[in-house]
Structures are given as C-alpha cells and as structure tokens.
Amino acid sequence: MRSHFRSLSACALVAVLTVAGAGCGQDAETAQGGVTTITVMGMPAATNAKGRKLFQDQVAAFEKANPGIKVVGSDMPWDVKTFAPMLAGGSAPTVLRVPLTEPAGLIERRQVADITKEATALAEYRSLNPDIMSYVTRNGVTYGLPEKAYALGLAYNRALFAKAGLDPDKPPATWDDVRAYAKQIKDKTGAVGFGEITTNNSGGWHLTAYTYSEGGSMIEQAGGRWTAAFNGDAARRVLDRWRAMRWEDDSMGGNVLGKQEDMIAQFAAGKIGMWVTSPSDIYPTYVTNGGKPEDFGAGPMPQGAGSATLVGGTIHMVNAKATPEQRAAAVKWIQYRYLRPNFDTEAAVATAKAAAADGTPVGVPVLPIFDQATADKIYKAIAPHANVPQDHFAAYVASLGSLTFTPEPQVASQEIYAALDPVAQAVLTRRDADPAALLADAETRVNAILGKQQ
C-alpha cells in the first residue's frame, strides 16, 4: 500500500520534546467541583529532566488559562499489548499518544472518541495537512489530531566523510553508493561504515523501509483480506546487500544486534559513518548524547529500484470512554501543547526562545503537520532563534520533494516487524544464512499474524 503525502515537504520548525505517558482510569477523570480532570500521555520520563520540567510548566500555564481543567501527565509509552486490556477495561488515559500505524485499528474497534465537533471548531483545523488527517478521519468524522510526522533518511558523520576522502556535502543517494562509501569509510578510518539495528522490532522496520526503496511492498489487500507481499525480488535485494556489506566488505562491524538507542550513542561518539533513521527525530538525542552539531549530516533515503521513503508520525486521540467535558478539555490540551507551536507564531517564538535558552535544538527540519504556507510562516518567525546547522540537512530536505512517502503497514505493523527481526539478524550474524528461505519462513509467520487480524 502506497500513499503519497502531496504537501508534506520539509520545513525547519522547533523540535517539540515529548515522550509518551502512563494511564489512569477514567473513573478518576470525572468532573468534580466544576473541574474536569484529564489524564494525558506525553509527559517526558523523569530521566529527561529538562523536557519534563517544560511539560510541567506548560501544564501549569494551561491550567491557569483554563481554571476548569486539571491535567494529569503520565509517562508510559504506547505499547499495543499493554494498552489493549487498559482500553477494554476503562483504565487507559483520556488522551492517547499513538504512532501513525494505530488510528485505523483504534477507530475500527471503537476505542477512540468522535471529536469532530471539538476539532473542527479550532481556527487552525482547516490548515492541517490533509494527508496526515486522512489517517484520523473516516466518512467525515475526525478521531485524532497530529503532533508530528517524519520521513526516514540517512544520518551520517561529516567528520568521518572528510577523513575518508568523501565530500561531506554530497551524501550517497543510492544503495550502491552507500555500499561504496561504507567500505571507503571502513578502509580509510577504521570506523563502522554503515550501522544497522535489528532488535526491538527495528530490524523489521528497516527491512520494510529498505524494501520500499527497492520498489517493493510489505502487505497487500485482495478480496478484503490482507496477505504478506514482501517475499520477492525487492526484499531479496535488501538481504543480499546486507550480506555483501557484512561478510564481503566488512563495513558494518560486528555489533549488529542493537536497537536505535544503542546506535544513537555510537553515532554520537563518532564510531558510525552512516545509518538510516529519521534525522529530525534523532538530532536532539544525538546532541544530548554528546554528538557534535558540526559533524551531523542528513541525506536522502538511499534508493535502489524504487523511489520511496517510509513515513510515520505521532497522533493524539481521545479515549472513547471520555465524557463530553473530557473530550472538550482534551482537544483544548492537544491544541495548546501540540498544535499552537506549529500554527501560532507567538506560541512558536515563545517555545523556540525557551528551547534555545535551555540549549535544546531549535530549527530542526521536520515534515510539517500544517499546510506549507503555515509551515513557512512559522519557520520565518523562529528563524532568529534557530541553533541547528540547517545546511547540514539540505540534501535530506531536497530529497523529500521527489520521493513517494509510503506509510508503515496498515495492519499489525509492530507484529510484522517483530516477525522480520530474525530475518535481519540471521543475515547479519550467519555467513551461511539463506535469504530466500528466511523470507519464505517469515511470509508464513506474517500471514498467520494477518489472519488473526481479520
């Protein structure tokens, strides 16, 4: 399944630091004494002291402006297995912060509320990017509002490029170039040329993205039923390239069983030449981990036989068990915390000033959740406070105008990724791994997963 985000081009906006939150029952969120209490996901964990304080300050400011609403923040991240029983039992938060893959299922299971009345009353509603909104609307009914969107690309170390004799302003655009660059970095510097992540569903996530870049797809629908579609030439080219880079070129290093957090730490330490990620999303963490801003580079998603990059995002939805008062309060909170800094120039500048004063990155190029005219207006407003070397993102930004933006699998995405992790791990840890056999076995397992969803 392919979906082209027609107006999602990159624009440098302030990076909003949010991490998902924990749940409380709706019984505790009833209106008492004229006050409506809502529990909201999105409070940063205690380990992110600056982000948590910013969140709490925003809660205080929101409650002061809305004395009839009390906001209880929570920091449990979204997990399908955890939240399924919580939603069924009525103990999930009022405001759910979920990946872009989740709205379809939540809407179908009637676990989220119709917020059309509250959302369409917002002045900025009609300026929201229609392609993102297509994931949270059904038959004219609105079920969610966006926080952010991302597109995968190539993060690379400009210093290692220079040391290896490569031009830091010309990152690779094809997988053939990536392989050649990775070998040159390894041979000239001793660093890992191209890093890969394969655990916690990240191997399946990357195999999906790389398959898109080879012109393939992961699942397809026929006769109302979904089936696996990845057991073909596109995915086999991905596995063959992994095998060649790992075992012939020795450009991927021996640590191939890590997750994204591990890769960010190694990348920030200057030990990785290139890897695929969302440059906009990982840049703040890269800096927090001690990475040098001047060494960070962002390039296009490398392409093989295709012309696509995987896109995702974060959406806020309201628990179906919320009262009318809670629905109204929830939409007010979502607007205040997530929409305003991307729509209202005064709010954007205030957020940018506070972030810059804290040393938080401002001006990281992101995919706008509003239309391009709104995104351009916000960028212009916050530009004086930007502290990010935006020219280092130029190649990544330029590529987004030409690539097809392809969403993650619409059904059971995380379960599919989990089923594909062993495929990536096998190819990168066993010289004798058989890509064809691995894909055939994964196809059987994924079809079983999809069968349970239908």
Care to describe what's here?
This protein is an alpha+beta fold and 454 residues long. The protein has 2 domains: 11-151 and 312-397, D-Maltodextrin-Binding Protein, domain 2; 153-277 and 411-452, 3-Layer(aba) Sandwich (D-Maltodextrin-Binding Protein, domain 2). It is built from 17 helices and 16 strands. The protein has helices at residues 49-65, 80-89, 103-108, 116-120, 130-133, 158-163, 175-189, 202-213, 233-248, 260-268, 279-288, 324-339, 345-357, 372-382, 394-399, 413-429, 435-452, and strands at 11-13, 36-41, 69-74, 95-99, 137-138, 141-142, 144-151, 153-157, 192-194, 219-222, 225-228, 272-277, 296-299, 308-318, 364-366, 404-407. Strands 4, 7, 14 and 16 form a 4-stranded mixed sheet that branches. A 4-stranded mixed sheet has the order 9-12-8-13. Strands 1-15 form a two-stranded antiparallel ribbon. Strand 10 (219-222) and strand 11 (225-228) form a beta hairpin. It starts with 10 loop residues before the first strand and ends with a helix. Residues 1-29 have low confidence and may be disordered.
